Each structure stands twice: as structure tokens, then as C-alpha cells.
């Protein structure tokens, strides 16, 4: 997305010139909250400051590892969930609801992967979800069925390995995050919203007469994704 591109551009600028410039990222976030008419949460300001420190290290050393790049692009998701939580809380407050939304990094509920070694620029990550994640996520989220005390808004696309280092799941990795969470809590349905009307018979940008495919098996969807259909993450 556009935020990921801004983060990567800031990383490349720090790498090539030694200059740390997150003005565009910061102004974009400030503009979002100004347009929404709500104050920017302290957590967002803290994340922006953390991003600045990491980029300062890149600029000082004039080098960036794949792991560092993964960590940098993770800020897009980590900031986004705080934005959505703030919007939800404003809405809930206006409706006099006592339940609050909470922005959560996926590893806080136990989403762990293998060590990806950097996947921010690749279509598919080397990082894979660890089987233990399903049990951990269930333990964290299932209690909400009995005591609905907050709305969890969880980062997609990113996770951590067993050493606590941030990994990414490749482009469209949020699809995988959603389905892993759905499977963990035994959800009856997982909805994935996209900017197209489902999986099409062909690329609608090339062929205007393209039609949505009504029904696909899991195997067919996985095969299409594996061979380049950018609608759902292949592992989702």
C-alpha cells in the first residue's frame, strides 16, 4: 500500500544519503486524524518516534538488513490498527457504548512464524506460521466470547519469530493473518474485503467484460493465488 511505499522510500533515503526524513509519513498520519476530527493517540506518536530511531541507525551505519527492512515496513500495520481503534472508540463513545476497541500487534496474541529473513519486497515470504500459534491465539481471544470487554483490532501481514524479531508474510499477508485467527477461534466464517468484486474470470482492468467467479473450491483458489492471481494470499 501507499504507507508501505512511503516507509520503504524513507528507508532507502536513509540508506543512500544518511538523511532521516519521515516528514511525509508523519504528515500523512497527522492529516488522517485531522480529517477524522479526533486527536492523534499517544501510541501513534510513540510508534513514529520508534521509526525515527530505527531509520537514524540505518542512516548512521549506511546499511540495512532484510530484518531491519521488515521491521520498518511493519510500522504501516502497527500504526493503522491504532487509527482504526481510535475511530472505533470515537464511534462507540458517541453511541454511549462501554466496550472499547484496542489496537493489538499480532504477536501479542501469539502469532509466531519461522525466521523469515526479510520478505518485505518479495511476493511470498519465507516466514511461515508456526503451528503453536493456533493454540496461543485461541487462548488469547476465545475468552472474549464469555466476556466481551473490548474489540480487538489486530495487525495483519506482520508477526514475530521465536526470538522476538519482526517478520512479514509477503504481499497480501493480511489475508493469511485473518484466516489463521479464524481457524484458531473456530470461526464459522472469515470475510476478506478487497477492492474488486471477488475473483474474476480475467483481469477486469484489461477485459471490461470480466465476470466474478461464483464458486471456487479451496484448492482452486490456492492454485490461482500461487500462479499470480493477486486476490487472496496463497496460504490463506
UniProtKB/TrEMBL annotation:
Any one biological process term the GO annotation gives: homoserine biosynthetic process
Xref: Pfam families: AA_kinase (PF00696)
InterPro entries per the UniProt record, alphabetical: AceGlu_kinase-like_sf (IPR036393), Asp/Glu/Uridylate_kinase (IPR001048)
Gene Ontology molecular function: aspartate kinase activity
GO cellular component: cytosol
Ranges for domain Aspartate/glutamate/uridylate kinase: 50-236
Family affiliation: Belongs to the aspartokinase family.
Name under which the protein is recorded: Aspartate/glutamate/uridylate kinase domain-containing protein
Amino acid at each position: 500500500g501507499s504507507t508501505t511505499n512511503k516507509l520503504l522510500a524513507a528507508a532507502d533515503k536513509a540508506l543512500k544519503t544518511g538523511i532521516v526524513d519521515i516528514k511525509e509519513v508523519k504528515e500523512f498520519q497527522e492529516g488522517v486524524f485531522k480529517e477524522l476530527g479526533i486527536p492523534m493517540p499517544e501510541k501513534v506518536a510513540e510508534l513514529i518516534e520508534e521509526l525515527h530511531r530505527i531509520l537514524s541507525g540505518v542512516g548512521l551505519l549506511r546499511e540495512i538488513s532484510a530484518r531491519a527492512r521488515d521491521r520498518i515496513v511493519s510500522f504501516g500495520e502497527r500504526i493503522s490498527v491504532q487509527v482504526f481503534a481510535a475511530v472505533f472508540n470515537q464511534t462507540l463513545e458517541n453511541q454511549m457504548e462501554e466496550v472499547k476497541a484496542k489496537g493489538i500487534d499480532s504477536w501479542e496474541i501469539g502469532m509466531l512464524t519461522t525466521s523469515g529473513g526479510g520478505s518485505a519486497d518479495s511476493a511470498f515470504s519465507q516466514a511461515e506460521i508456526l503451528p503453536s500459534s493456533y493454540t496461543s491465539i485461541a487462548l488469547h481471544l476465545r475468552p472474549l466470547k464469555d466476556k466481551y470487554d473490548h474489540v480487538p483490532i489486530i495487525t495483519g501481514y506482520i508477526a514475530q519469530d521465536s526470538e522476538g524479531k519482526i517478520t512479514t508474510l509477503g504481499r497480501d499477508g493480511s489475508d493469511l493473518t485473518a484466516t489463521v485467527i479464524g481457524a484458531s477461534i473456530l470461526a464459522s466464517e472469515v470475510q476478506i474485503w478487497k477492492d474488486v468484486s471477488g475473483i474474476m474470470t480475467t483481469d477486469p482492468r484489461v477485459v471490461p467484460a470480466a465476470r466474478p467467479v461464483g464458486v471456487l473450491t479451496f484448492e482452486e483458489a490456492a492454485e490461482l493465488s500461487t500462479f499470480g492471481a493477486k486476490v487472496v494470499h496463497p496460504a490463506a
